[in-house]
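Hi V.,

Quick status before I head out on leave. The structure for the redesign project is tokenized and pasted below; the design run finished overnight.
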């Protein structure tokens, strides 16, 4: 006689209660294993682990900037201008990285500048990536007239030099963080759209897509549920490399007075304001330049690791 789950058979009496427990939920176990595999892969890749620590350090610096310095990054002291790193003022306060051309503390502007540079860089990349991925999916999957229309709009946008387009828009709208993010974000969608479209065109006739259609899945579900996960690797690589160009673009527009206002600290703005003092005060360029280079390097390394981790052909070596 068969016993059901949780029952005790007569022949098992005297041997203790033998109760069959239901197996662990397979989805929960799979997710737990997946999280462990991600951490294991990250620890195995020492460069990726170092890059993630750099990103975390940059984010923590931006969040806890008021706790890292007691100086006001916008306070001007002309009499204390261009003091070297480690200089101590009349109040006994030490300027760890010196002062800039207006007597403002360089370290304070560096840690507060992490906020603006990261917000502008990451927000603009997120905006352009979202627009580009969406249009690339629609363009590649639907084809026909809509595909031609989206790609021709991208060609027209690429025909205009970015700096002239940004100057024209920001000259009308005026400077500001939100406006700068919008301009940088809408400018960068074309490269995402083209890469995603080419990936989708090669995937839309694959067997797994045909199987999804045969089960009655609509275009939206097929694009976002079945095709999108297969193009994330290329998107992440583009996004990681776009952060550097976005920060540089922010510096260029801020230098022209059309991006971040000069008094607001940002790494790109610090570079733009200090380039004329490279010979007499090289530290003004070295510190923000090193911060940009280190942060971008960390993002690129982590982006490469994520690309390799998401590529099924490279699962055995990451």
């Amino acid at each position: 006689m068969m016993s059901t789950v949780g029952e005790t058979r007569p022949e098992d009496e005297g041997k203790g209660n033998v109760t069959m427990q239901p197996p662990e939920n397979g989805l929960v176990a799979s997710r737990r294993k997946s999280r462990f595999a991600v951490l294991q892969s990250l620890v195995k890749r020492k460069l990726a682990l170092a890059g993630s620590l750099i990103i975390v350090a940059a984010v923590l610096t931006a969040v806890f900037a008021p706790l890292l310095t007691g100086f006001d990054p916008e306070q001007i002291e002309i009499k204390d201008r261009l003091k070297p790193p480690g200089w101590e003022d009349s109040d006994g306060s030490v300027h760890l990285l010196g002062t800039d051309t207006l007597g403002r503390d360089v370290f304070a502007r560096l840690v507060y500048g992490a906020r603006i540079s990261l917000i502008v860089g990451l927000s603009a990349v997120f905006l352009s990536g979202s627009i580009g991925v969406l249009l690339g999916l629609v363009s590649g999957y639907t084809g026909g007239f809509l595909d031609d229309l989206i790609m021709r709009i991208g060609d027209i946008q690429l025909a205009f030099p970015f700096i002239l387009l940004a100057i024209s828009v920001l000259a009308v709208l005026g400077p500001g963080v939100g406006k700068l993010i919008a301009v940088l974000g809408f400018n960068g969608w074309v490269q995402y759209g083209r890469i995603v479209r080419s990936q989708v065109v090669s995937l839309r006739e694959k067997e797994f897509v045909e199987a999804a259609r045969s089960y009655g899945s609509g275009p939206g579900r097929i694009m976002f549920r079945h095709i999108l996960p297969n193009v994330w690797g290329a998107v992440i690589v583009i996004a990681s490399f776009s952060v550097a160009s976005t920060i540089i673009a922010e510096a260029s527009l801020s230098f022209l007075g059309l991006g971040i206002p000069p008094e607001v600290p940002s790494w790109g703005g610090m570079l733009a304001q200090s380039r004329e003092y490279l010979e007499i005060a090289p530290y003004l360029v070295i510190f923000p330049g090193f911060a940009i280079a280190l942060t971008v390097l960390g993002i690129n390394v982590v982006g490469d690791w994520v690309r390799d981790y998401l590529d099924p052909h490279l699962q055995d070596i990451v």
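Above is the designed sequence. The chain has one domain: 45-75+91-314.

G. will cover questions while I'm gone.

Best,
W.
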